[in-house]
Amino acid sequence: MSLIPSFFNNRRNSVFDPFSLDVWDPFKDFPFPSPTIPRENSAFVNTRVDWKETPEAHVFKADLPGLKKEEVKVEIEDDRVLQISGEKYVEKEDKNDTWHRVERSSGKFMRRFGLPENAKMEGIKASMENGVLTVTVPKEEVKKADVKAIEISG
User: Could you tell me which of 31, 30, 71 has the C-alpha nearest to residue 47?
Assistant: First the structure.
């Protein structure tokens, strides 16, 4: 039985993701405009990111169609927060052009993820190919506390 209510269409939502620091917009799937994000920009602003953990690393993949690597920033804040941000600009409008429809998104985006204790802050790599940003955060072994048994005297 899922703990996520059916009105979320069983999609993973950042409100239930303990590692996501995104702010949940309860109005984003309703047919009226969102008070926080203009509807025409919402697809780009809500950039989707996959996060998988392998035995060696945490791997983040973000779909950023139409962006160049120079337009994207990958940063680590406060030692344990991965931040991916950027901006896609609107095409310059020519006064002689007649627009019939505008569906491609533009605007700023930012996604933040709190990294777990086993994330190694040194050696993080980012690459971008065919509009997909891949950030690889290597893992380190988390040192377990030494446990010493104490004999109980009677």
Answer: 71
DSSP characters over 69-121: GGGEEEEEETTTEEEEEEEEPPPPPPTT---S---S--EEEEEEEEPPTTB-S
**Sheet of 72-77, strand order:** 72-77, 81-88, 107-114
Q: Mapping DSSP to helix (H, G, I), strand (E, B) and coil, where does residue 6 land?
A: helix
Flag the least confident range among 24-28, 59-63, 86-90.
24-28
0.85 exceeded by the pTM?
Answer: no
Contacts of range 87-93, beta carbons closer than 8 Å, 24 or more positions apart: 88/44, 88/64
Q: What angle do CA 71, 74, 76 make, to 5 degrees?
A: 155
**50 neighbors 60 (Cβ within 8 angstroms):** yes
